[in-house]
Amino acid sequence: MGGTSVSEEGKDEGSPKVALKKQIGLMSGCAIIVGNIIGSGIFVSPKGVLENASSLGVAIIVWLATGGITAIGALCYAELGVTIPKSGGDYAYVNDIFGGLAGFLRLWIAVLVIYPTNQAVIALTFSNYILQPLFPSCLPPETGLRLLAAACLLLLTWVNCFSVQWATRVQDVFTAGKLLALGLIISMGVVQICKGHYYWLEPAHAFETFRDYDVGLIALSFLQGSFAYGGWNFLNYVTEELVEPHRNLPRAIYISIPLVTFVYVFANIAYVTAMSPRELLASKAVAVTFGERLLGVMSWIMPISVALSTFGGVNGSLFTSSRLFFAGAREGHLPRLLAMIHVKRCTPIPALAFTLISTLLMLCTSDIYTLINYVGFINYLFYGVTVAGQIVLRIKQPNMHRPIKVSLVWPVIYLLFWAFLMIFSLYSEPLVCGMGLAIMMTGAPVYFLGVHWEKKPQCFDRALGKITHLCQKLGFVVYPVTEEESLDKQGPGEEDGEVEKSINS
Q1: DSSP for 375-429?
Q2: Which residue in 3, 38, 40 sits closest to 24, CA to CA?
Q3: Between 72 and 458, where is the model more confident?
């Protein structure tokens, strides 16, 4: 996690040298991946894959196949993560390989829509399951849902600002909690099978269709499955803060992706030991229905499990998205203030505050889910662009030091699957994909005016500098030195030195 270190030479110059520290171990790395992939979906509505697969058997195959493809993509990202050891994930890789405009467009769509909307939806799901027992016969009031979601976001942002260790412990605990809840579901499924309740798992019935197979719908099932594994690349956002990334990044992937695939497959198997595929499709919260049928008076465990899962999901998303904004600001693609970290707390407070504000604004809108549909295509588009960048980098810089080097067969396989999904998405949802592309391209003029245009009016620079200086004093934050600067024993720049002196005074 982000941290600070005060070097002796920094002390000699009268101002501290602040830099990121490597504090994420293997366990926390796995918690980041697992905690961000497994949200509320597997508890609430895993029916997207089943509905389009047309049978349980095909749905299970889809879950397995998309888990395998996700693992391949994660391995490609592992090579990129240690070859370009920067925080920021695919934004950092696209920015380095394809240039500033491509990197900025990736950052733009993430800042504008993807992370604020995802965090708002997860927080709303959390508040819905917390309030549901208080309103057994009706839906909770919309205002109450949004206020509780805002309180959840404020609390977790404060935790992330106060202490990196607290944030990682929250992630570890709640990831363990959701895995225990899913372990309970899987265990009950095993008990059901031992009792003979495996009718829908017999091959003759597993492939019994509730509507005719359709190639287009099966492709859509793969697309839904791929989205369900979203979050597998989040550890790459904090590569600089990962202890021994050349070892722990691939290890976290080897552990996390198979674990998530196992959980997804066997949770779906467990569900059909207590209900038919049609009943699963009809349920609004399948884990709750499952609990009501098998747990009796203990059925309250399931809604609590969903709430805990989403609470941990909000924490993980806040942590990783703030690091993305931090990396973008350090590259000059966002205001420089967002690349600053607290001198004592060891946390990127400005980036966390920015993430919080953008998410709270999303809570005020009524079109959150529509926005997610528009940009989901773009998010997946950049996965493919990033993996393609791995091949480009191999061609342009074949002798570059690569602590991890995977066979080029894997990125080719991933890109073939990715191209299939992209082409199908454009064919089946041209308006939605077109709107996503249009939202992304609004970032082009912003890039040329805000980043590419270097000779801005002096009054603009002075005003921005004063605002930044004021926020630094209020937040007690400074611009960190990079690892290379620390190794070269370079002192802080004149501007940072002046700011630090003014803060300390």
Answers
A1: HHHHHHHHHHHHHHHHHHHHHH-TTS--SS---THHHHHHHHHHHHHHHHHHHH-
A2: 3
A3: 72
DSSP assignment of 16-79: --------B-HHHHHHHHHHHHSSSHHHH-THHHHHHHSSHHHHHHHHHHHHHHHHHHHHHHHH
How far apart, in whole angstroms, are the C-alpha atoms of residue 402 and residue 287?
Answer: 44
The Cα–Cα gap between 340 and 326 comes to 8
- Residue 412 tokens, joined: 């080719």
Rounded-to-integer distance, Cα 346 and Cα 163, Å: 7
Q: pLDDT of 189-232, one tens digit each?
A: 999 999 988 888 888 888 888 777 777 788 888 888 887 888 88
Give buried/exposed letters for 45-78 (b at 16+ CB in 10 A, else e): bbbbbbbbbbbbbbbbbbbebbbebbbbbbbbbb
Residue 487 pLDDT greater than 60, yes or no = no
Q: Which residue has the tokens 């990125």?
A: 411
Question: How many CB atoms neighbour CB 344 within 10 A?
Answer: 10
Domains, the chain, ordered by start: 8-504 (1.20.1740.10)
Residues 6+ apart with CB under 8 A from 167: 1, 159, 160, 315, 319, 347
Per residue in 264-295, pLDDT (tens digit) is 999 999 999 988 888 888 887 788 888 888 88
CA-atom Rg of the chain in angstroms: 23
Per-residue DSSP letter, 285? S
361 vs 239: CA distance, rounded Å: 29
Residue 242's DSSP bridge partners are: 24
pLDDT in tens, 66-115: 999 999 999 999 999 889 888 888 899 999 999 889 999 999 998 888 88
Give the E-state strand segments of 438-489 in sequence order: 477-478
